[in-house]
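User: Run a structure prediction on this.
Assistant: Running it now.
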Amino acid sequence: MKAREIMIKEVIFANENDTIRKFIKMLNDNRITGAPVLNDDGQLVGIVSVKDIINALDNLLKVRLSAEEVKDIRGKFNWVSGIMTENVMTVSPVTEVIDVFKLMVQKHIHRVPVVKKGKVIGIISTSDAHNAIIKYLWEAKR
C-alpha cells in the first residue's frame, strides 16, 4: 500500500506570516491539531502543531529574562514562523505506508506531508495511520 492511498488530499495549510491567534482559530475551526506551513510562494517551510504552541507558552512562562529579551521572545511567539518546526519530514506519494508509519514512530511525529515535485499534495496523520491499520486488519479478517 502506498502513501497516496491513505493520505488526506484536502490539506489545510498555515502561512508562516499568520499570527498564532489566527492559527489557533484555524485549528479550532477545522478540528485539527497541526498543519504544514507555506511561505508566500507556496513552498513548504515548516510544520506547526498544538504542541508547538504549548512549548512556546511554556518557554515564556518559565524562563527568567530581561525585559528586552522578553519583548523579543514574545514577538517571535506571535507568528507561526516563530514556533514552527522547520526541518519537515516528508514522503512521496509512492512511499510504502509501512515506511511512513516507521518514520512517524522513529521520529515521534504525528503528521507527515506528502510531497510531489516540491508541492504538498496530501498529509498523513496518526489517525490516518490508525484508520489504515484497522481497515487492513478488518479486510484480512474477512
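Residues 126-141 form the longest helix (16 residues).
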